[in-house]
Amino acid sequence: MMLRRPKPTDSESDLLREQEQFLSSGTQSAVNIVRRPDKRRGDIASDDSEKSLGNQRDVVTIPDFPDQLPTLTPAPPKKSRFKKERVCFEDEDPEELLDRHDTHISAVLSRIIERDTSAVPVSFPAFTGTAFPKVLHRSTIQTQVMAPRGKKSIFASQIAAQNAKVRGAESQKDPLVSTPQASGSSHIVLGRCLSTVDGPLLLSGEGLGPDKAEQTLKIHQENQTRLQGMSHSEILEEQKLLLAQLDPRLVDFVRSRKSQKALSPVSPPPQREVCPDQPESKTVQPQCAKPQLDSEVVLMMGDEEDETKPAVHPAITSEPCLLPVKPQKEWLHMDKLEPEKLEWMKDLPAPRRQGTKKAMQARFDFSGTLIPPAEDLPVHLGLHHHGDEPELAGYSLQEIFLLSRSKLTQQRSLALNTLAHILSKAHAGEYSTCLSGSVLASLLDAGLLFLLRFSLDDSVESVMSAAVRALRALLVSHEDEECLDATFHWLLGTAVFPLIPPVHEEEDEEDEEGLAKSKKEMTKEREERKLDHDVARQDIVKALLKMQLLQRLRYILEVVRPVPRTVLDVLEILIRIARHSTFAATQILDCPRLMETVIYEFLPCTWTPTSSPYPPSLYGLPVSTVMKLLRVLSSTGRHVCARILNSLGGRRCLSRFLAMEPSVLLLEPGEAICCSTEALRLWAVSASYGQASKLYIDLYPVLVKTLQAAQKPCGPSEPLQLLELQRITALLSLLTQVTHTAGCHEELQSGTENLPPPPVTWGHVTGLQPTVTGLLKGCMRALDDPGQRSSALTLLPCYLVCMGAYYSQLSVQVSLDERVCSYYCRSSSIICQPVLRAPSPVAVPSLPSLGCCRAQSARGLVASESPLPLFTALFYLLDNLTSIHRGLAKNVGLNRNSLLVRFILFLITAVTTPAVPSNPSSAVPLHFMVSPWCEYLVHKLLRALPSVFLREGATGGPEAATLAELQLQEKFTPLTGLGALLRDALSHLPSIRGCYLTHLAHMEQAVLSSADRHLGRNPWLTSQLLPELTGPSMPSDWPFLPLVSLYEQAGVRQGGGLQVVALPAGALQSVVYCLQWLLLLESWREQALKTVPAGAKLARLACIFLCSSDLFLEQPVQELTWALLRGLTQSGRLEAIDLGTPPPGLASFHDLYVALLAQYEAVSFGDALFGCFLLLPLQRCFSATMRLALFGEHVGILRSLCVSLEQLPVPLESFTNPPEDSLPLLGLYFRSLVTGALRSDRCPVLYSVAIAHLNAFVFSQDAVSQEVEATRRSLLRKTYYLTDEVHPCRLLLLYVL
């Protein structure tokens, strides 16, 4: 019967049924199970017993399968080198040998035989008076004999030492025991006493077979018998013979073993037994006394080591006076002295002197204070450590980093807290005068960012809190936050620049317009693949976002729930990240449960009041910093603001904290006012986008009540005065933004735009105007009260800005009211007293900041006494008033255009330059760097361009310029007088304005965006973050813009020809307008282009000759260019020309000059103006490369460069002094004279220059080098051998100019 194999699908019943079928069939199984005895357990039996016990062990056997595997390849049998050396006996059973060498535990346990103790006497312990045996103490055993050598515990060594001491005492009672003799006869004593020794000292019996003990004893007895039969001389002779035959190393080894056993401190002193051949004596010789240590030497014995080691560590001695402590023998693990490890316990050396010139490593204490190198601080402060310079107090940055990686929690926390203090002081600029280099840059290069990020993942809360604190000190600048809060109520104070570092993009040969979408995706992927280290070098905040900092901060707030200080640090870090960019703010909002946790835990609508002003936990209490975080996030974009108001419950929070006075919020008074202030600022930012307008209608009574309460005088002695002033300024900022939003209601309601109109209308804000006007009157009256002057100066700009916003929106409404109060123009001299100072930034490129420094007494333009907010607010109001009421300017003695120019120039200069001039109208500093949000102001300034020079045109400015030019008539008579050129330029100012507006047409979109911000068109604003400050919107040399644009269109940048023959339409007129504008600025506004180097001006004017082949020949261009060139080469301005520095946009001036040479050689027609531009860089003060280029590569120009000495705008001495020292150039001068290329009738200027330099070189009497002397003799020799045709040239060389 064929049985079926089981299948995986069979059930348990199927398997049981198949088993019954198999057993009933009686079929033999395919395998047999055999149990064999285990020899290791001693189960040795006969074959019958094995068969009977065959089922005790399962052995699987397969039929027709060999027991051993066949060899795959024939190989020689393995030979063992050690097997041959083994001694084997023929009658030895291999199985017995295997059992004998079996070390398994079963073999050991099977041979256990109980020892017979019947004949052993039983000894009872001695009776004592104590209940328990006496405990052994190490300190009580002072003179005990150490136990035998070996690795034993301390307790076992003490017991062995006691036993050895007892045995030593018993051996002293034996009369046969005595001390050894002198060392000189030790070998004799040893030879005679060997007979009494029970066994050999060196023989171990290894390799003698199973009866090695008997063989060893037999050999030992034979040696003893032979030694006893030898005399003393024979023993010495055999000893010498034996030493000569043995290996010296073996002899040294035997002697070392003998010396170890004889002098070992852990064994009892060696004793000798009296030999029988000596005379019997009952006297015992005195024992050899133990050698005493010298009083000045500390001797410590070595640790017990294994006997298998052949060498012994010698005892180390050291002078006790050089060691801080004297080790004692009973000290644990101090039996071997290591002086190098005790060096740190010595007294510290004296600090280095102050007069050293060697650079010292900066060291800090735990508060981050820099410690002077020579300051000797006490050791108990904990500032001395075991580093390379233990005498210096404090920790270096490297040691602090090492301490931060310690295994001890306290050390890690201490290091991180110290780093936090150092970073705070570095931001404050306290190390700028003490250290060379930047502390922040050094720490970041050392990996501080990654250290802090790793420390945030620590499981210990104290370390985590210290890491948060250090990260806050790195990212957050408290002074910057104070400055931003202080400027929030200024004109356009809600707009801030993003704190993002400039991005240095990689150069790409392809145009940006032609960049494909796939290329952009590849760029994005490349950014994602960047390592954290590379990202951190460019942008720290971006690197932290990539390292998932937000998720970790959320875990700390949600799970760890740290102390209040750590919570505030986390919130400040989030605020700094939000100020980075809109992308970073979006990352904060998108982080799971981060903002929900922050608002739920720290901005609740209901809370339990606390009795303590400093609660132990901030959870469940409102925190003003959270409201500030929401405000900063909202300023990054209108969509982010909408998410905060709608999704995160921002409207509910605003209603909760603004519907009630701060005094009834059941919070600490200062915190309650801060929460109300930040809520008003958040609402102001929301209103700047046209959002949360419905809330204004609901809370209108509360706002009016708060505004009316601002009339209450506030003295400087009242507490919380500053916080109350900040709350009032935040309220006025809110009203200003609501006014702008209400002013756009009619325009949006007309349907011209696709935006919904805001709920608030113009009628909702008109009722505020009388109240604000009354407050403004009271504030100006308070200026005369010294006690209220400070608070009045703080509130006055806010009132003026609020009134200016009202009148700016009033002009676009249907009804127009021209009521104006004359008190708007009132001012006070107190405002102009403070001196404005520029801030000194302390930052690294990857972590930008505003540069506000606590070390300065006043923070520049944002100081509390700064007149900037009042000036800007006053000019803003007057500008809006004069735009509404045209007759107001005459009534108050102001000119509309002049006032506008003053305001715009003051505002632009204030936000772009360190200081503000005392009289902006007279200076008209057009050298400002236009910021990315000032495009509308620049456009407005250019529109008012004709009024800039009204004063000069009305007071005879052109005539004065003509009279001043009379002193130059002897030298050069221009084609047209300077006065006529200026008068003609003044008449064309409107056309000049149109020319520049045309060339700035590419900034139209930026101008429109800037106009929405300046005009208060809130519904059109997308973000309060200004564009990234990567550079100025306009270059500093913008007056040359028409020339540069024409050069880029028609000229070849590298020179050497033209791309087009004809100029574009209107190009000539644009060049004329540009030159006229430059002439006006250079004549009447000398400081206007002060930031443009003189070399750059010369390079820009040279574009006239490279733009076309005949543009420079036009009469208006000739006249204006001559006038500008004469102005650049005046005695006071000529020295300022530096051609060694490359002009902006050019690699070097030499390349431009080579292009001018090629252009002159092609199309100049010997023009004197063009020639003067070529001669100007050939002066002796400039590089010789341009002179070499002219006389070497373009020597043909010398035939047409016919500029006379009278037409030369610079003195001839600037070409001849000092004498030329370039030998190649002198050789070119000589060649051009000899060949006739340089003649006096064709190129008189360079001819005179070449003659002067050659005469000075040839006939010089100064000591020169051998090479110069050889060149001089060569020129003389060549001059002498000239032919008759060039003989006059030789005579001219002898003429000394």
From TrEMBL:
Residues 218-261 form the RPAP1 N-terminal domain. The keyword Transcription applies. It is found in: Nucleus. Residues 21-84, 259-289, 505-530 are annotated as: Disordered. Residues 1039-1264 form the RPAP1/MINIYO-like TPR repeats domain. Keywords: Nucleus, Transcription. It holds the Pfam family RPAP1_N. Belongs to the RPAP1 family. This is RNA polymerase II associated protein 1. It comes from Electrophorus electricus (Electric eel). The gene is RPAP1.
